[in-house]
Amino acid sequence: MSPVTHFLLSWVVAEGIGRDPVERRVITLAGIAPDLDGLGVVIDVVSPWVGGAVTAFYGEYHHALLHGLFGAALLSMCAAAAVRRKTVVGLGAFLVVHLHLLCDLVGSRGTSPWDLWSVSYFAPFSKVATLQWQGQWPLNAWPNIVMTVLLIALGFVWAVRFGRSPLAAISQNADQVFVETVQGRWRRFRMRGHV
Fold first, then answer.
1. What is the pTM of this model?
2. How many Å apart are CA 139 and CA 111, to the nearest integer?
3. What angle do CA 113, 114, 119 make, to 5 degrees?
């Protein structure tokens, strides 16, 4: 699934687990952190532009370093190290990393039916327990789009009802501006007698 969808799903879990903004931020970011192993794409693109060798770091390492048990354990330990409630947040991070893996297994196929993303659960140490699902839908398939739209809508509802949004995981200031704007628009909408 897209990083946006991973981010929003992780935010939903973090809202249920985290007591304070730091815990929620750490859990949310842990849910998108497995995709850090895809940053090799930057080298793959830039290297030929600057006269360097053609590389394939993205194809080699994405879904190979942090998309498995090793990544879940590493990211959970990093999350736990950043907060006071280490066990709860560490387990929350472990959960959202596994949610990330499940979502990739279900809905991250390429454009062709044979372009499946697999998850090697014991990578980077072993290819044993490599999981792949033949029914995997494409990254741009309607289920992914619908899920993302619903999660965005939930972000708006959450902003109105609870005074915080997924943006809090990125920037408290951005979250505050967003929440104030959404709540202000909602109040004006209600005052006009629409709700």
1. 0.91
2. 8
3. 110
